[in-house]
Amino acid sequence: MGWGATGRVVAATRPTTWDFSETKRENDQELAAPRYPAAGQLINRPPSMHRLRWHQKCDLATHHFAKICRRFGTRQKVLAWCTLSAVAGIQTIQRRRLATELRALREAADLTLDQVIQKVKIGKSTLSRVENAQVSVTTRNVTKLLRLYGAPAEKAAEILQLAGEARQHGWWLDYSSTLPSWFAEYVAFEHEATQLRAYDVQLVNGLLQTTDYARAIISAEFPGAPPESIEDRIDVRLARQRILDRPDPPRMWFVLDEAALHRPIGGPQVMAAQLEHLITMAKRPAITVQVLPFRQGAHMGMGVSFAMLDFSEHPTVVYQENLSGAVVLEKDYHVETHGLAFDHLRATALSPADSLAFLRMRAEALLEQGARESNE
């Protein structure tokens, strides 16, 4: 998975959730006012319903962006709000679990959304987004909903704890101006997974990349990007790797196509250092690395990189990335198909021990190649 992510929000932070029922009157007054707030005021206050609706649905559409900039302030500040809103609105596993629990309790109480909003002062659109895991919800509102649904005390305590976890600030929010929402969602899943299984065709997986290898890839992917943007993207990739050093890291199983070992990313020296890093990481108890050699011929994963993420209290998801986005597959058919493919891939690949020997051989060959090239 070669996407590298760039940059950080430097303009502002925002609350985890907003109560839009309280801002509707403010929004109406703002639309009627002859002058709009200055950019400095805008960045320090939650956006109105009008602005957030645009953030979520348009995702920085160019023809709307110029209009918003003219109305609300400078391009940089508006962009900060847009990207922060998009990333903060991603679905995390905690939000998904909370949404499932609240929806199940509402349905068990035989209540419609319209009936709920009449008894609990919460907007219908907000409640709908909560039940679709698009936004988090305050503990106060969760308590009101649980009381209305008649949830047992033990169940209510469990859901309140889950609601608190769903509101926690993920580290990826610090990179909101860089992370597109589709990749931020994957990063959130990756952060919460208990096991990751990945098959990579062309590149070493981002979780196992060295800084120089990542820099070479990102520079090639974004040839027109300024140096500081490249470094910001590298920062994101390295931030993802912090999960490897947690006291309880997720179990990780990587199958790497031999093609990824022959493409000299960054030159022989950089590539050799990357393979040495792979060898070091593969020796960790929670990490397994296998190489799928060319000599094995055709196999079930031909040309398709993918990752499977397992969770303690959520079904497995499959993640596939392309040049302009990604898809998260959750249906049983997709999960079973990719699970079967991964089982075939690791059965076909070299054993972990033989894979380490193969990586060592390739690293030595690259170092010899680099020495020859330096002497020519």
How would you characterize this protein structure?
The chain is elongated and about 80 Å long. It is α/β, with parallel strands linked by helices and 376 residues long. Among the domains are: 93-166, lambda repressor-like DNA-binding domains (434 Repressor (Amino-terminal Domain), Orthogonal Bundle); 193-375, Endonuclease, Chain A. The protein has a six-stranded mixed β-sheet with strand order 3-2-1-4-5-6, sandwiched between helices. A hairpin with a 6-residue loop joins strand 4 (306-310) and strand 5. The model is unreliable at 4-70 and 74-89 (pLDDT under 50). 53% of the residues lie in helices and 9% in strands. It has 17 helices and six strands. Helix 9 runs antiparallel to helix 10 (153-166). It has helices at 24-32, 39-42, 49-58, 62-72, 75-88, 93-108, 113-119, 124-131, 139-149, 153-166, 181-192, 211-221, 227-240, 259-262, 268-282, 332-348, 352-375, and strands at residues 195-200, 251-257, 287-292, 306-310, 317-321, 326-329.
**How would you state the average pLDDT, rounded?**
76
CA(first)-CA(last) distance? 35 Å
Rounded Rg: 24 Å
Q: Helix count?
A: 17
Order of helices and strands: HHHHHHHHHHHEHHEHHEEEEHH
CATH topology of the domain at 193-375: Endonuclease, Chain A
Strand order across the largest sheet = 3-2-1-4-5-6
CATH class of the domain at 193-375: Alpha Beta
Q: Work out the helicity level.
A: 40-55%
How many DSSP-defined strands? 6
- Which architecture of the domain at 193-375 per CATH? 2-Layer Sandwich
Estimate the global geometry from the Cα principal axes. Answer: elongated
- Unreliable residue runs: 4-70, 74-89
- The helix/strand class is alpha/beta
Percent strand equals 5-15%
Query: Sheet bearing the most strands, described?
Result: 6 strands, mixed
